């Protein structure tokens, strides 16, 4: 006779293992996605030459880094900030490496 779900006991949740330098996989992250999202991820992963997991992990890692960096505060004195923006706005000075780069054929050509 089948047991009701009310009578089933759930095992206590275990803490996630701590990642050590020798650990390659610390655990799984599960998400639910629509079929069309899964197909999109699969196509992108295939075109990238990666598994779905590799592709999604790389994309999530990049998005997480961007989210953190977008909210990072840098404090500078006004004079230092003016110099910083001046350097960012200035065109690069010509050099051999830059000349070779500008003369190189683009990979898509």
Looking at the structure, what is the overall shape?
flat
First and last CA, distance: 69 Å
Helical content, roughly? Answer: 40-55%
Secondary-structure class: mainly alpha
Instruction: Count the E strands.
Output: 0
List the secondary-structure elements in sequence, H or E. Answer: HHHH
The major sheet is characterized as: none
Low-confidence segments, given as residue ranges, are: 1-13
Number of helices: 4
Mean pLDDT: 83
Query: How big is the Rg?
Result: 25 Å
Work out the strand percent.
under 5%
Describe the structure.
- The chain is an all-alpha fold.
- The protein has a domain at about 30-105.
- The chain has four helices and no strands.
- The chain is flat and about 50 Å long.
- The N and C termini lie far apart (about 70 Å).
- Mean pLDDT is about 85; it is low at about 1-15.
């Amino acid at each position: 006779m089948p047991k009701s779900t009310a009578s089933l006991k759930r095992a206590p949740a275990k803490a996630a293992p701590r990642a050590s330098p020798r650990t390659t996989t610390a655990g799984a992250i599960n998400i639910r996605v629509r079929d069309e999202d899964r197909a999109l991820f699969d196509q992108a992963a295939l075109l990238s030459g990666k598994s779905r997991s590799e592709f999604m992990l790389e994309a999530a890692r990049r998005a997480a880094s961007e989210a953190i960096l977008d909210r990072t505060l840098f404090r500078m004195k006004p004079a230092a900030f003016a110099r910083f923006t001046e350097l960012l706005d200035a065109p690069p000075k010509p050099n051999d490496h830059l000349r070779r780069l500008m003369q190189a054929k683009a990979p898509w050509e």
